[in-house]
């Protein structure tokens, strides 16, 4: 008989969209009610200095899946724009190795549900990147047909994207789905997968549509929210978390399952979203853009009720989960992520000496220990130094007082520029791999006035 401690853990990775550092009760929110997520944190470890590798969707997700900084894998500048659009020819190539690839090769069942956003062309989809099956939106929920943001001027055609596709594996099974009901459908699919895969080690990647705009919610959550549609979306995520946690309990899998909860980038910081107490928001390399909630629960192995300020990143998931799952990390390429298992299991120190903040291909800031040196913001030089331990809100620039610290951090800046490149200084980077490029890109859907859409046009104009 196998010793229970030798059983390879199941993994459930829950990734939200644009959920901010200050949006959960266990991170200080009083606006949103998140009892299930707070309880998850209480059963495990909460990270207070966890970073996504980008303040926007596509590069953040590509980095998490591959364990690499976005410029390492061609996800810095996406032909001049920061995220992928429907039918774009770019995507994560087959040559890149994802968390799902390594776990599947080690015998895991793999399922993805929700937002993908690292390429929608053949070869770039979840089923091309290690997932046995997929149900979800291939990109953002504001990338369908919805009322234009501005009233069209005379003689100017309104701008429309193709109908929003819902994919099952590689097939479009619905266009313009009812977004208010989509999270419930995702949860149903998650439960079906958990029951089906219960006897094998499994990896479920659930990437919520919420809280990315436009926000459509079910009536129950709209009624009970005290923070408008945003709070209702957060509470929908909390509800879905409670269903998954309960299902794992009913299946007897709680002790053997690692549940991870995080978000792809910071909140936009408007309409009810919060990155408090951090400065900045989505699209920025201030802390609020890239430092996000990160909770890991594994009752069989991780001691409950912990919080840590050790620096960790989404790129660490690949080596960490590979290590815990008995899978192989690719040895033929540079992986920027580091194994976090000592932090998770033994209260060990961060494996990172340095963390880099890239906006597209621009190196905008660097963190070493307590110190963060800013270099630029969206193409404009901006050199400032902050002590994140004393001043997590990045309010008191202490650049002039610490020339020695600046000199030390600049050594790391030069190393990063040499390896990953920096568009601001014109350095190309010596260790970068190309993004995938589809030769004949075609959008997954085309608008057809005779198609029986449930909603031919979403009635909210918000784009995020
Ligand atoms: Mg996002």
Tell me what you see in this structure:
By secondary structure, this protein is of the alpha/beta class. The protein has 2 domains: 4-149 and 161-352, Alkaline Phosphatase, subunit A, CATH 3.40.720; 356-437, Arylsulfatase, C-terminal domain (2-Layer Sandwich), CATH 3.30.1120.10. Helix content is 23%, strand content 18%. The protein contains 10 helices and 18 strands. It has helices at residues 35-42, 57-66, 99-105, 179-197, 219-224, 228-250, 287-290, 317-324, 341-346, 403-420, and strands at 10-16, 45-47, 50-51, 90-91, 109-114, 133-136, 165-168, 171-175, 202-207, 257-263, 294-297, 306-308, 312-313, 355-359, 362-368, 371-377, 380-387, 436-437. Strands 8-7-6-5-9-1-10-11-2-12 form a 10-stranded mixed β-sheet, with helices on both faces. A 4-stranded antiparallel β-sheet has the order 14-15-16-17, covered by helices on one side. The protein has a two-stranded parallel sheet with strand order 3-13. α1 packs across α6 (228-250). The protein is globular. It starts with 9 loop residues before the first strand and ends in a 27-residue tail after the last strand. 53% of the residues are buried. Bound molecules: magnesium ion.
Tell me roughly what share of residues is in helical segments. 10-25%
CATH fold topology of the largest domain = Alkaline Phosphatase, subunit A
Overall outline: globular
Q: By helix and strand content, what is the structural category?
A: alpha/beta
N-to-C SSE string, H for helix and E for strand: EHEEHEHEEEEHEHHEHEEEHHEEEEHE
By oligomeric state, this entry counts as single chain
Number of helices: 10
